[in-house]
Amino acid sequence: PIAIVWHRRDLRLHDNAALYYALKAGRPVLPLFIFDKDILDHLDDKRDRRVEFIYKEVLKMQDELQKMGSSLLIRYGHPLDVFKELTSEYTIANVFTNYDYETYAKGRDAEIETYLKTVGVGFHGYKDQAIFDRDEVLTGTGKPYTVFGPYSRNWLGKLADPFYLKAYPTEKYFDRLYQTPPTPVVTLDDMGFEPLGENYPKPTVSEKLLSEYQKMRDYPAERGTSELGIHLRFGTISIRDLARQAQETSPTFLSELCWRDFYFQVLDHFPHVEQHAFRREYDNIKFLNRPEDIERWKTGTTGYPLVDAGMRQLNETGWMHNRVRMVVASFCIKHLLIDWRIGEAYFAQKLRDFDLSANNGGWQWAAGSGTDAAPYFRVFNPTAQAEKFDPKGVYIRRWVPEYNSLDYPTPMIDHAFARQRVVEVYKEGLKNY
Ligand code: FAD
């Protein structure tokens, strides 16, 4: 019998918890990746950066494994169907995998675990993508944190123990990989997707960037952030390696990794946030959701240059600077009274580093409805934000070349008017609470 390691958002052989425990258990280990039809069928745009990225990374893994006489099994289908096939093709003792905290993934894993049990196959899950997860960081009374400050103090305190950032030395046991001739490859075309031919950022960050991170990270014209989001999303970099590097050079960067864990545990403990406001009363706010406003926001033609630059950067590259994400999200919700879920869904479709937990956290923060949210009456002024964080307009002109010309629209809404209106609308929505 063999063991299967089912890779999902951990597309690497190095420092991988599930792979390590599978190899250590002693049976021959065959790694597996499933292109999940349930997820892919929901993507309308068949030129999807994430799918292309995953595809490239999966082929890289397969290549690495083939060099060691093994292979990566690559399947396309519904995960349960794939496991049914695999249990008839191979004699499998156990399946090892790393946890995923999204509701869909938790349901899928539970279903597969139940099926595997009926055929006598063990299913084992591990923490790998987070530094601390589930109930590892709780309040004094054993409850999940809903405020970042105290969570991060507790998180940092625990991190003083080097144990948590130790790498899993998978390399030591690679001779236990299941030896097999190369297994067949599915193509992007087989799955109905087209390649974009894009280059993605490297899965590394320089010491220089980390040491200047605190000073530079708020200025969207600079390359002051790591752009590692996509690698963290798909596990093509080890969070432990990265956090150790940050521990030595940049407490501010480490704190961003703490936000990542924070939102994982919010999603894990409060799955209602996927559909609803974390603070339920915020579900009563009456948004306008005017189609023409939504369209102008999406296309970056609002007449607010920082908002427009951000949306165009997102549309063209699949990435947007964090400072600008905050500004465009606030503008969408508060200036235009568009439901945060509409903005959230648009980011989910476009962001190459899309991660349900962080995206939901970011949008609920901007809506004022989330765990550690900005109070609703605090409304970003997009002009003041531009003056402060892009004082020379370098970022704006990069993405909005017609800025300052007659072709550029006047602001679609007056800031003072919008500010007053949103405060009224929120007050009205929240008045019975
Ligand atoms: P860096 O500044 O280099 O940070 C390093 C890593 O830390 C990031 O890659 C990310 O994994 C993590 N991180 C940083 N900030 C946060 C944060 N606030 N919350 C959680 N993790 C964080 N981040 C996502 O990874 N996916 C999303 O879908 C996402 N959607 C967002 C939506 C909104 C409205 C807002 C305001 C923020 C969102 N963020 C999201 C958080 C943040 O903007 C991005 O992580 C960051 O801009 C990615 O760029 P970077 O990799 O250069 O980040």
Automatic annotation (TrEMBL):
InterPro entries: Crypto/Photolyase_FAD-like_sf (IPR036134), Crypto/Photolyase_N_sf (IPR036155), Cryptochr/Photolyase_FAD-bd (IPR005101), Cryptochrome/DNA_photolyase_1 (IPR002081), DNA_photolyase_1_CS_C (IPR018394), DNA_photolyase_N (IPR006050), Rossmann-like_a/b/a_fold (IPR014729). This is Deoxyribodipyrimidine photo-lyase. It comes from Fibrella forsythiae. PANTHER family: CRYPTOCHROME, CRYPTOCHROME CIRCADIAN CLOCK 5 ISOFORM X1. Residues 1-131 form the Photolyase/cryptochrome alpha/beta domain. Its cofactor is FAD; (6R)-5,10-methylene-5,6,7,8-tetrahydrofolate. SUPFAM superfamilies: Cryptochrome/photolyase FAD-binding domain, Cryptochrome/photolyase, N-terminal domain. It holds the Pfam family FAD_binding_7. Keywords: Chromophore, FAD, Flavoprotein. Belongs to the DNA photolyase family. The keyword Flavoprotein applies. The keyword Kinase does not apply.
